[in-house]
């Protein structure tokens, strides 16, 4: 259970209720980070607008490249919610989610392409403290994906670091998106 209880629909204002309806239609359930962020409706709105803008702007990289980098960040940080949601996004993009079980062995696993290995290593270098990104890594990624691709990848990894660290700090855990058995985040508090 999250360290801060989710805002239930009966506690929510009109804007938050509308946000919940949209999210439930889009994802099958209200994502718990949204329900926790609903305590601060203006930040919830900023979060939603930012996520929508990033999603619409991220058109350069193939889905498998973007999603595996984001997933690796979530896995590295230890955000079970982000891992769960990321696995669902990969499934919805018709990507091989079974290989995610082998993400720890990406360097030697035949389940990952050379491009995927390069972006996972970059995600690791950006996520570690202090960062260990090298000029050679960036140059390699430029050859693979161009400047726009490197910018998109870097931004996606940075955003996922923010998401994963925020959710982990708030104690938000997996919700069942990757298994299609979503629970309603406030159900436990009303039963």
Automatic annotation (TrEMBL):
<dbReference type="InterPro" id="IPR029032">
    <property type="entry name" value="AhpD-like"/>
</dbReference>
<dbReference type="GO" id="GO:0004601">
    <property type="term" value="F:peroxidase activity"/>
</dbReference>
<keyword id="KW-0560">Oxidoreductase</keyword>
<protein>
    <submittedName>
        <fullName>Alkylhydroperoxidase family enzyme</fullName>
    </submittedName>
</protein>
<keyword id="KW-0575">Peroxidase</keyword>
